[in-house]
Write a structure and sequence with these properties.
The complex is a heterodimer. By secondary structure, chain A is mostly helical. Helix content of chain A is 60%, strand content 0%. Chain A contains eleven helices and no strands. In chain A, helix 3 runs antiparallel to helix 7 and helix 6 packs across helix 8. Chain B has a domain of 61 residues: Phenylacetic acid degradation B (Ubiquitin-like (UB roll)). Chain B has two helices and three strands; from the N terminus they run E-E-H-E-H. Chains A and B meet through helix 1, helix 3 and helix 7 of A and strand 1, strand 2 and helix 1 of B.
């Protein structure tokens, strides 16, 4: 054992199963291993596809927003944290978009070149009005860290509540994706809630900034609640109240204007146009590119 | 990236225990405002490729290190005293990690 300890990473790699390329990770599992991908009888395939598309679009767009923080955060450590969360969400988006196209092949944009996989076709060849993410995911946070973590907190609190219940979905693929997502989202919520509390219960200045940011993020929650059942709404309200209390941000909320289900219906802010132009430009300009 | 905040966040040393590792090994350091944030940062920086199952963080300021100048005085005297190694008895095959 002693000689393995001379190099910390060698020791870790040996401990994880002897794979020498520790830098590429060790011991990974396939979340869909052994899961039958046929849509089971009795499941409404179109409704399943819509649900997967909405959850996939939320993850894809939020992931892109978070990725914009890379090389722009206040601290390297938080930059890596945000990038990790963005990658987790991108992983969820890939599985969900793939499942959406499996359940309803009609979702695949006709313009997408035939050799492009479904997940990429949906991500890169749809136009703004075909995206079904909530508006909260697409809004530009203007690189305001308080807004970044406030939005992340509201969205991941809702998503964790929703995914926890989807772990019992009659569709085995969506259920397997949800089981994987719950573990990831638990950490995302913890990270975001930690910052909401730290800044809310911090200095007078950070308290004001966090208050404004949470009001900004919370004003978008109606869209999430519009497609949720009562149990999800109750859990989100309970968690948000608990964190607000710890962050000394209770009872200062302005009434926010009620919103429709705009984003889910394809009505988006200009922020999404800008985001997609950036995200889709390489894939559209070079459809043959591989990465 | 701006550098304003980093001057104020103290340094922490990170120790990670691998999946079947018996001990925590030092993997690096990071900046964080307190122990809780240091643990979260350590998780994000040092276990994101599935390396570990347990993390320790220690304030770097709390570590007392031996000085390189004293290397000879500290370590050289034990180099020629083989009789300090208990090599005169057999270790049974089923006793690992000695």
């Amino acid at each position: 054992m002693a000689h393995e300890d001379e190099n910390a990473y060698e020791s870790l790699a040996v401990a994880a199963g002897g794979e020498e390329r520790w830098a590429f990770g060790t011991g990974f599992g396939d979340p869909l291993a052994g899961v039958d991908t046929a849509v089971p009888g009795g499941v409404d395939a179109k409704a399943l596809a819509r649900e997967c598309l909405a959850l996939g679009d939320d993850a894809l767009i939020l992931s892109q927003r978070l990725a914009l923080w890379v090389s722009n955060a206040h601290e390297l450590e938080d930059e890596v944290a945000l990038a990790n969360i963005a990658l987790d969400l991108l992983g969820q988006a890939r599985l969900l978009l793939t499942r959406a196209a499996q359940a309803d092949p009609g979702l695949r944009p006709p313009d997408a070149p035939a050799h492009i996989p479904d997940e990429d076709a949906l991500a890169y060849w749809r136009d703004v009005a075909q995206f079904t993410n909530v508006r909260l995911a697409e809004l530009d946070d203007g690189r305001d860290f308080a807004k970044c973590v406030a939005r992340l907190f509201v969205l991941t609190t809702w998503r964790l509540a929703a995914m926890t219940r989807l772990a019992d979905s009659p569709d085995p693929v969506l259920a397997a994706i949800a089981v994987k997502a719950v573990k990831e989202l638990s950490y995302h919520r913890e990270y975001a809630a930690g910052w909401v509390i730290r800044l809310g219960d911090g200095t007078e200045f950070s308290h004001e900034r966090m208050h404004d940011a949470l009001a900004w993020a919370w004003s978008g929650h109606d869209e999430l609640f519009a497609i949720s059942d009562q149990a999800v709404r109750d859990e989100v309200s309970r968690v948000v109240t608990q964190v607000r209390e710890a962050a000394t941000l209770l009872g200062r909320d302005k009434e926010c204007a009620a919103q429709s289900v705009a984003g889910r219906d394809g009505e988006h802010a200009d922020d999404l146009v800008t985001l997609l132009a950036d995200m889709q430009s390489v894939a559209r300009a070079n459809p043959e590119a591989t990465w | 990236m701006s550098t304003g905040a980093s001057a104020g966040w103290p340094l922490w040393e990170v120790f990670v225990r691998g999946k079947r590792g018996l001990n925590h090994v030092h993997v690096g350091s990071l900046h964080a405002a307190d122990a809780d944030m240091a643990l979260h940062h350590a998780r994000d920086l040092y276990t994101r490729r599935n390396e570990g199952v347990s993390i320790w963080v220690v304030p770097s300021a709390e570590i007392t290190a031996s000085s390189p100048d004293e290397k000879d005085a500290f370590f050289a005297p034990s180099g020629d005293k083989v009789y300090r190694h208990p090599t005169f008895y057999a270790i049974p095959d089923d006793i690992p990690h000695i």
